[in-house]
Predict the 3D structure of the following.
Amino acid sequence: MSVTQNTACISVQELFLGLLKNELTQQDAQQVSLHVAHCTHCNTQFENAKHVFYQTEADHISHSPVPEASERTKLLINIAWVFVIAGGFIIGVLLLWDLAVALWFDRSQPIWLRVSLALFYIGFAILFLVVLQQRLMARTSDAYSKMKNK
Ligand SMILES: [Zn+2]
């Protein structure tokens, strides 16, 4: 295992970017992988190149205008979720409440039905609060990360 830079190393290192970009032929890619696996020097070089490459990619992605659109989409999804949950909650309260109360106070109904109803409403209320809180928190942290990036 040599640590000196020979011509094989140089020609392999020239292919690093191509390999990272997935632009090499299978033969070239195999040659690079094989060399990197056996050459300590090139292995280090490749790790560095990989690091720089993904760092640049990440910078590129975070600065492209695409995430702006997806931020808007996320916000819309959050709003839609709140609407869906609120709508479901209103239906649950107004539409089913009368029925639930009637069943609850109807002493002829079996105890399991009344317990199930109570569980249903307790669970529904918890779910509503948790999801609503999550949605609101997601919105706040989105706005925060958006501001931080500016
Ligand atoms: Zn090498």
